[in-house]
Write a structure and sequence with these properties.
The protein contains 19 helices and 44 strands. It is elongated.
Length: 802
């Protein structure tokens, strides 16, 4: 939203400077994005006087002028038809930048005669589109700065332009008057009264208006009138200057008037050439397929249900978005129909988006204009048309009625103070709201506040609190320490699971992994690779095709990150993420995961400068370290049978029994890596912190620490078993021989082939026995050994190797 200082002062009586206004607007929530000092680009232009002007000897249309400047008399070649002796002009000396032609003036020769500067026109200085001749000033002292003369005689042409950012909830600030109202409420000036008197009609409008019943929710109120006998020419200079200053191109008086009120009062309007309208105007919904040539000289095809303003010939306007070229006004227009209507925000937004049209009218209607200003806006525009173009107005024709937006909310003034954290007296709260157009009455701390029609965004007490806070200025808010209910250490804020999550994150980072934060949305193909991609996890309105589904695991996002890093030459990667994965679209259908990914080489370099490649034992060790940090039991089982994206022979599930899976570690399947465009092999682990049993309730005592000072005994056993027998089965069987005495069983060797024959292998175990009460005798050790051989034989069919 752009406006000039003088435009603002049409509504606000103030002596504030531009800097004060800009600072106040930002403090009020209307962030100033920039202030354009239009005088700055003209600071080097000076005033001169033509002493003589003679015809160029080699060009009929050029004149050799002697121009008096602050540096003496300079020779300037000029082709303007009004270049003559005695006139006061604007001079651009060599080295001056001319914005209208994007050129820096230098000393040059024109048809063999030197020229030491330029005499400028209004268009060359971007003051207007006038280019019929150079500027002739009625007064001015030779050598004076032109901007000083302009600031005194025509300040609107060098008025500062302020641009503010508008948040969607502040539709009232899309008009200059709304901005002035905010500044006045803050105390930066006084809002000037606005009186819009009805313009009496002198004849019945030959054009009527109707709204079809099914369109009523989209257009509850439509007003208009015919003005006959208008003269549509260029608008006055003040109006052109204002539109040009905010980046709009003046077109004609009738069109410029509608643009003026769009920005001045946030009231979009449209003017039809009444002689081109066939019959009456009606608002209806398109059947689909109708076309219209719009004012931007593009043809649009309506979709079914979109709102149209049409006549007996068909569509004449894209309702609330853009008018049609067929009934547009030209210089030959003498009779016009001025339209002022209220359009539903959602309808306009859908139509504009579907047709890909961005217009000032759409921008305002889809954010919400004042529904009660529809008819007053028509009256204001009618008066300006009469003032600038002449003519006679008809009686107003009207369809529908204004929306009833009157509503009130209760505001607890004491609650405002507690919420905002500032001491704002009740009288100040009432004063702020009244200045903004609200009506506040009531006794005690509770006020009944009525909301003005132009504040569509205020929908409850919280919004009223925000208005008071804006006016009081949150820059005055002083930080206050939070009060503790009682002395001492406060109760923990984090839940046990939140603490566990933080511990897992810190532990993995300490192991050397780099944390990633990937999107919770991935593409269907990647989701399907990891057991997802179904309709239950599909997004209804994804922001892109690559984010169409909720992620079923964290691995897809980490692998995508790895692929991007590898594409940039980073081949050694250690990445991790802790976050939610989803197996459904309903609340609770998610689980917390902690996933790490290793690719490439790891560890210190050997004497030859080489490093070893990562393997599944690296991720196994890291997974076990994380589980230990978050309180998992020390004794777990490593089982096979993980999902298909893990390598079938190079992974393990960390379990507490066959059904309680705490995590998975191992190598990822080569097919997965190929599909994700990752150069492998890749090792990973995924842990489910929520599956780790919680510690016993607080207050329960810990078990006694049992440490034996007796010498442990280790015995080695080598069993011959079938080649497909898993070592874990032997370990579990051996450990079960005497659970009280056997402290640890570990595999230390495997031998295949040789004298064992086809289909057989040897697995060697070390069994550590830790006595508690007395030193073991040889007979007791032998008895335990025999029991181990028996248990292993029954469980696996293994026999001692001879």
């Amino acid at each position: 939203m752009k406006f000039t200082l003088s435009w603002l002062k049409d509504h606000l009586e103030t002596e504030a400077t531009v800097d004060e206004i800009a600072e106040t607007l930002t403090d009020l929530g209307l962030e100033v994005e920039g202030v354009e000092d239009r005088a700055a680009r003209l600071k080097d232009f000076t005033i001169g006087k033509v002493v003589s002007a003679e015809k160029h000897p080699d060009a009929d249309r050029l004149r050799v002028c002697q121009v008096e400047t602050d540096e003496g008399v300079k020779q300037i070649i000029c082709g303007a038809p009004n270049a003559r002796e005695g006139i006061t002009v604007v001079v651009a000396k060599p080295g001056v930048y001319v914005p209208g032609i994007d050129t820096t003036i230098g000393v040059g020769k024109i048809r063999g005669i030197e020229s030491f500067g330029m005499m400028a026109s209004e268009r060359e200085m971007e003051l207007s589109e006038e280019h019929d001749g150079i500027i002739e000033l009625p007064s001015g002292e030779v050598g004076a700065r032109f901007i000083d003369w302009l600031a005194e005689h025509d300040p609107a042409k060098v008025d500062p332009v302020i641009e503010i950012a508008i948040t969607p909830n502040r539709q009232d600030a899309l008009g200059v008057r709304g901005i002035a109202r905010d500044l006045a409420a803050r105390g930066l000036g006084v809002l000037k009264p606005q009186e819009i008197a009805p313009v009496p009609g002198v004849f019945d409008s030959p054009i009527g208006v109707t709204i079809e019943d099914d369109t009523l929710p989209g257009c509850p109120h439509f007003t208009g009138r015919v003005i006959r006998g208008v003269k549509n020419g260029p608008s006055p200079a003040w109006l052109q200057d204002r539109l040009r200053a905010i980046g709009l191109r003046p077109i004609s008086a009738l069109v410029d008037i509608t643009n003026f009120y769009t920005y001045d009062l946030n009231r979009p309007l449209h003017v039809f050439d009444a002689d081109k309208v066939a019959g009456d105007l009606r608002v209806y919904r398109a059947s689909g397929g109708e076309t219209i040539m719009a004012l931007d000289d593009k043809e649009y095809s309506f979709l079914e249900g979109q709102m149209v303003i049409g006549d007996d010939k068909g569509p004449e306007s894209i309702a609330g978005v853009m008018g049609g070229a067929e009934t547009g006004c030209t210089e030959e227009t003498v009779n016009v129909f001025v339209e002022s209507a209220f359009w539903d925000e959602i309808e306009i937004a859908h139509t504009g988006r579907a047709l890909k049209i961005n217009s000032d009218a759409r921008y305002r209607f889809e954010r919400g204009v004042d529904p009660e200003f529809t008819l007053p806006g028509l009256e204001a525009a009618t008066q300006m048309v009469l003032d600038l173009c002449g003519g006679e107005p008809s009686h107003v024709v009207e369809a529908g009625a204004p929306l009833q937006t009157a509503r009130s909310y209760h505001l607890n003034t004491a609650r405002v103070i507690s919420l905002v954290g500032m001491e704002i007296p009740k009288e100040d709260q009432i004063r702020y709201l009244t200045a903004l157009g609200f009506s506040a009455t009531g006794k005690g701390d509770v006020l009944e506040v009525w909301v003005p029609s132009w504040r569509r965004d205020v929908q409850g007490e919280a919004d009223l609190v925000e208005e008071v806070a804006r006016m009081a200025s949150l820059t005055k808010l002083e930080p206050q320490p939070m009060r503790r209910p009682k002395p001492g250490v406060p109760k923990p804020v984090l839940t046990p699971m939140q603490r566990r999550e933080g511990t897992a994150r810190r532990t993995i980072a300490a192991l050397g992994y780099n944390e990633c934060v990937t999107y919770s949305f991935i593409d269907r193909a990647s989701a399907e690779l990891f057991g997802g991609g179904d309709d239950a996890t599909m997004l209804e309105n994804p922001i892109s095709s690559e984010m169409s589904h909720m992620r079923p695991a964290l691995l897809p996002g980490l692998l995508q990150a790895a692929a991007r890093n590898q594409a940039r030459g980073m081949m050694d990667l250690a990445l991790f993420e802790v976050g939610a994965a989803f197996h459904g679209g309903e609340p609770g259908e998610q689980n917390l995961q902690a996933t790490g990914l290793l690719i490439g080489q790891t560890g210190p370099r050997d004497p030859h400068g080489a490093r070893r490649s990562v393997d599944l034992y690296d991720v196994k060790a890291d997974a076990e370290a994380v589980l230990s940090a978050i309180g998992a039991p020390a004794k777990v089982q490593i089982l096979r049978g993980a999902r298909e994206w893990w390598h079938p022979g190079r992974h393990g599930m960390i379990c507490l029994g066959p059904k309680k899976v705490l995590g998975v570690f191992g190598e990822l399947h080569p097919k997965i890596l190929a599909a994700m465009d990752v150069k492998g092999p890749a090792m990973a682990f995924t842990l489910w912190p929520g599956e780790v049993p919680m510690p016993r309730a607080s207050g329960a005592s810990r078990g006694a620490l049992a440490i034996s000072d007796l010498q442990a005994v280790e015995r080695d056993f080598a069993f011959v078993v079938d080649a497909d027998m898993e070592a874990l089965n032997l370990v579990n069987a051996a450990a079960g021989a005497d659970k009280a005495l056997i402290e640890e069983v570990r595999v230390f060797d495997e031998f295949i082939g040789g004298s064992l024959g086809e289909g057989r292998k040897s697995i060697a175990l070390t069994v550590r026995m830790q006595p508690r009460d007395k030193t073991l005798t040889e007979d007791e050790i032998e008895a335990v050994g025999a029991k181990i051989v028996e248990k292993v034989g029954k469980a696996t069919g293994g026999v001692l190797r001879g």
